[in-house]
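Human: If only I could read backbone structure tokens as easily as an amino acid sequence. Underneath my words sits a plain record pairing an amino acid chain with its backbone structure tokens. Take your time, and here it is.
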Amino acid sequence: MTQEDASLDNRLSRIEARLSKIEEVLFSTRADKERETIATFLADADSITDQRQKQCYDEWIHYLNNNPEAVEAHLSVHETAALKASINAHAPSDS
């Protein structure tokens, strides 16, 4: 191997090392953004579920306060509403 070949080989090795570092930074940044996106999605999904359960719970509280005979014998109004909301059961209409 000539001195020129050795110099080119050395330069190529340095370029490959820099490229590897750039790829690592880009991958890490992309992975962080993807993790952030996934975390946001999951938080939003949890928030939607929480809102639906809260709405369902409120509907049951309203229904059970107007229809006390519908409360489970061994449970309170709150416990019955919470149980129903946990399975997203819709409260019957008051009419």
